[in-house]
């Protein structure tokens, strides 16, 4: 919480969807060490709640998702509670069972870009602005940028974004594979909700296993991965037959 006792990350749950909202709108949701502490706490709870939460949404309060690292906190010498706390929090987003949707409007710079790259999916508004400013400030990525950005958009586009520090707008983000969809800014909340509801209506067992397999198989060679998937998977959900029956009766 900040000095006034306000939570820096809000959580709201509805019908199997949990929404985490970065809540420092007066600072464009800059990523302070304290904000990361709260985000990590929520993610730890979600990791232990796969049977009550099927999908997670991550967004920002106000006119920007996040302007990135809190440079004022860095200047003041504020530090995280452990040396790799921020990077490990991003790793946890990848590791929790539920698919995580990043919903982005306005700024999404540097550390915030690293944050959304750890999410499974990304929907943005047409006013979204993605940018890597590590080079501008003389910083070096330590939260996974140099792995996750090339994985998402390919090495050539990643080098362009990282080396130049140029701004990528919402529609271009879709074109280069950084985002799944771009919608008008006033439609972003409803579009995000509808997408999450569509996913949470599917088998949570399947969603969890698809996420787990994609992460695990990325660690294998192709042939090894294909063999693992067919031999080591958990099998279908316990309600598969019921879902098939209901599908035929619609």
Automatic annotation (TrEMBL):
<protein>
    <recommendedName>
        <fullName>Enoyl-CoA hydratase</fullName>
    </recommendedName>
</protein>
<dbReference type="InterPro" id="IPR001753">
    <property type="entry name" value="Enoyl-CoA_hydra/iso"/>
</dbReference>
<comment type="similarity">
    <text>Belongs to the enoyl-CoA hydratase/isomerase family.</text>
</comment>
<dbReference type="Pfam" id="PF00378">
    <property type="entry name" value="ECH_1"/>
</dbReference>
<dbReference type="InterPro" id="IPR029045">
    <property type="entry name" value="ClpP/crotonase-like_dom_sf"/>
</dbReference>
<feature type="region of interest" description="Disordered">
    <location>
        <begin position="228"/>
        <end position="250"/>
    </location>
</feature>
């Amino acid at each position: 919480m900040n000095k006034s006792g306000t939570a820096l990350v809000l959580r709201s749950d509805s019908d199997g969807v949990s929404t985490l909202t970065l809540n420092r709108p007066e600072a464009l949701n800059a990523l302070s060490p304290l904000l990361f502490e709260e985000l990590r706490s929520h993610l730890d709870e979600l990791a232990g709640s796969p049977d009550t939460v099927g999908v997670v949404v991550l967004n920002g309060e106000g006119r920007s998702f996040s302007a990135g690292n809190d440079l004022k906190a860095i200047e003041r010498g504020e530090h995280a509670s452990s040396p790799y706390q921020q990077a490990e929090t991003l790793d946890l987003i990848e590791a929790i069972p539920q698919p995580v949707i990043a919903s982005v409007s306005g700024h999404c710079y540097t550390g915030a870009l690293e944050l959304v790259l750890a999410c499974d999916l990304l929907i943005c508004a047409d006013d979204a602005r993605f940018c890597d400013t590590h080079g501008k400030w003389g910083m070096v990525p330590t939260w996974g940028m140099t792995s996750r950005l090339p994985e998402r958009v390919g090495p050539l586009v990643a080098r362009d974004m990282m080396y130049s520090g140029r701004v990528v707008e919402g529609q271009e983000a879709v074109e280069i594979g950084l985002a799944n969809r771009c919608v008008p800014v006033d439609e972003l909340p409803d579009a995000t909700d509808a997408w999450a509801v569509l996913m949470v209506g599917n088998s949570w067992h399947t969603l969890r296993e698809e996420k787990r397999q994609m992460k695990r198989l990325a660690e294998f060679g192709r042939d090894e991965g294909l063999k693992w998937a067919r031999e080591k998977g958990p099998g279908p959900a316990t309600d598969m037959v019921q879902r098939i029956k209901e599908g035929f009766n619609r």
